[in-house]
Amino acid sequence: MILLGPDLTTAGFNEEINLNKSKALYVEYEVLLPGESDVHVEKNIFLGSAVKIELSCRLADKHSHMKILQVTWKKGNETIKHINKTEISWGIQLTVSENRKLGSYTCTVTGEKEFSVVFHLQVPQIAGREKPVVSYKGDSAILICESRSYTPIAWTWYMTNGSEQIAINDSLMLDKYVIDKADANVTHLKILKLTEEDGGTYWCEAAFELGKSKGKLKLKILSLMVPLKPFLAIVAEVVILITLIFVFELYSKKKEKRAEDEKEFDQIEQLKSEESNGVESNSARHRKV
Amino acid sequence: MPPHSDAGPVAGPPDGGWGWVVVFGAFISIGFAYAFPKGIAIFYKEIQDFFGTSYSEIAWVSSIMLATTYGAGPISSILVNRYGSRPVVILGGLLCGIGMVSAAFCTSIVQLYICVGFITGLGLALNLQPSVIIIGRYFLKRRPIANGLAMAGSPVMLCTLAPLNQFLFDNYGWRGSFLILGAILLHCCVAGALFRPISADKVSVKTQSIEEGKEVLKEEVTKDAIEMNSPTNIHMETKTEEEEERDCCEKVNKYLDFSLFKHRGFLIYLIGNVLMFLGFFAPIVFLAPYAKHIGIDEYSAAFLLSILAIVDMVARPTTGIIANSKWVRPRIQYFFSFSIAFNGTCHLLCPLASGYTGLVIYSVFFGLAFGMVCAMLFETLMDLVGASRFTSAVGLVTIAECCTILLGPPIGGTLIDTFGDYKYMFIKCGAVMVLAGTFLFIMNYYNYRMLAKEEKKRKAKEEDTKPQMAQMKFKPVLLSGQGITSTLLMLALAVKSHQIF
């Protein structure tokens, strides 16, 4: 099965990455070399457990005519001698079984132009949380770390005290810390009866076959007064608004009543004058008759 | 409220002035009622982790809130019938505030169900119905515009609440956010304070007696004259006996008008809407998951919903203006049925949309259709039932819709899980809505014809009784035998007595 990733275009070059998983525990990574010589290509590869890996760099078709002077594979400063060479690709095979074998492997192709690719072989990264978890004094907080794609062997939690990192042992302080280990891919650290000192940076460390990886989490402890201030401010604003609305209503009602009383007074005056006119005309008519 | 000199009808609602302030209040109130349950979904992940529950247990909070908001409709109607809109909305705002503040101190998921789901949901129900009702009291000629503007509160509030909730959550955690949201919900009380009570009779009598002609005044005067004359007193006594018999039914109907179930228009609306709501909300719930399913990233998927909300925001007042035009207003029921069918067609065509561009086009049309339907949702009911019976009608309709609203998304979810494909859910929603639209179209055609026939009959009857009324007018004037002077004095008395009310 060959999976072709999406076409990535950055600064005008195309990179095509072929991932071939023909057998379990054997992976191949191949990077297609680009057209710009001063752009350095980097690729991160995460290894959850020991694997046999083949890394190769291949020239794109449009450069296949280019004369190749030299191809070198290096790990750090050390040159790797066994290179599997085909017409247009150069690869190396590695058995990554221990932490020492992880690192950065560079493939440099020198011809008319020089291209280089760096493969970073590393343990899977644990994503912490950038935004702090906010909790309150006396309440409890839960910090969660997970590693879905790669299953770690074990999890350890650390708390930062000053500049030191202290491991959290939940069996020692049962009423303060509870670590949930139900699922191997996820770890929960529940901290009870929070106080201000519990705030700060926490680390969850996942142990993999090839090494350890840490995720960072921040815990912020607030007192109840903190949200209470905006709460009271908003309540005060609401009360003021309602009072203003009712006062305005009473005022406009009074104005209305006064205006109507005046109108009514005028109307009655008008009617009275009409009436007197009418009576006069009647009597006039009577007299006439 | 002083009568508006340029407002249309002589006998009827103001159609302007303070009415627009009421629309603003309704905008806020309705906005909270519809947007709040969706807005607090941001907190769910954190609460889920905190209490260690599954996602479906958290989703119950929203469902309970929605169910209570719609199910408590009749309670709202009864209270409005008894006390008017203003006290009910203020009470609703207080309940919402209390609910959220107590939710901030909850220690279990069940307590959250009660505080957030039940109490806040009840408060929102007491906000939603009275806001819609009071628009019907303040507007007649410009009612569709007023309704469209007020209903636009929902998308605007949603767009405001989403980033606000995120900000509150980042700074105060979920408990602090609930506390502050409780205070924010108290603004519903402010909206309620703006709902100045208005009695339709009071306005009409005032305008008649002060501004209009003397024929109407004569009617008032003749009424008083009849009452003053002793021969007619016996006639009044027999009348009261008959009234007592009907009192019992009328008493119940005064609180919640069950006689609406004999009203043809109401039944048509009820059946059509209950059917429509089966497919109304599910596509919104599943739009983002569907986008992610076909390979679109999370932010673009969320952006689709933003597009929907923005188009919705514009579509609602625009629909109100269109519905108010002289071509559409008399046939507003057809316009409503058309927009439901249009909505259904959008869903049916959605599976054909490929890629992100296709989904964006779908979101635009969906937002348009959704806004059109929502803007006219209550306007059409008011149009069918009339402003006075609308209070009870809205309560009965919402409790009936409650069931299908709650069933819609879970049925859609089951379809997706069974077939593993979203297209069947869209087809189901589309089909249900097209069916509902067609049903409403046909039945309203029938209803319009029947109404025209009844109107003809009534006019014929009026023609017959007119000469009798003319005789009645002059008789009491001759009977009293006191001349123009006393008539005019009685006129002044009538004006003054009605003002006391």
From TrEMBL, chain A:
Chain segments annotated as transmembrane = 231-251
Which organism does this record belong to? Phasianus colchicus (Common pheasant)
Domain Ig-like span(s) in chain numbering? 34-118, 124-223
CDD domains membership: Ig
In its UniProt entry, what is this protein called?
A: Embigin
Q: How does it sit in the membrane?
A: Single-pass type I membrane protein
**Compartments, as annotated in UniProt:** Membrane
| GO molecular function annotation | cell adhesion molecule binding
UniProt key word Heme: no
The main location class comes to membrane
Q: Which SMART domains match?
A: IG (SM00409)
> GO CC terms on record?
cell-cell junction; plasma membrane
Record SUPFAM superfamilies: Immunoglobulin
Keywords (alphabetical) are: Disulfide bond, Glycoprotein, Immunoglobulin domain, Membrane, Transmembrane, Transmembrane helix
Basic and acidic residues compositional bias: what residue ranges?
A: 256-275
Automatic annotation (TrEMBL), chain B:
Enumerate the transmembrane spans: 18-37, 58-79, 91-124, 145-164, 176-195, 266-287, 299-315, 335-354, 360-378, 390-412, 424-448, 476-495
Q: Which UniProt keywords apply?
A: Cell membrane, Membrane, Symport, Transmembrane, Transmembrane helix, Transport
Q: What is this protein called?
A: Major facilitator superfamily (MFS) profile domain-containing protein
| Compartments reported by the entry | Basolateral cell membrane
Q: Does the keyword 4Fe-4S apply?
A: no
Recorded hits in InterPro entries, A to Z, give: MCT (IPR004743), MFS (IPR011701), MFS_dom (IPR020846), MFS_trans_sf (IPR036259), Proton-linked_MCT (IPR050327)
Q: Major location, coarse class?
A: membrane
List the GO terms this entry assigns under cellular component, sorted alphabetically.
basolateral plasma membrane
What topology in the membrane does the UniProt record assign? Multi-pass membrane protein
- Gene Ontology molecular function: any one: symporter activity
Say yes or no: keyword Methyltransferase present: no
Classification of source organism = Eukaryota, Metazoa, Chordata, Craniata, Vertebrata
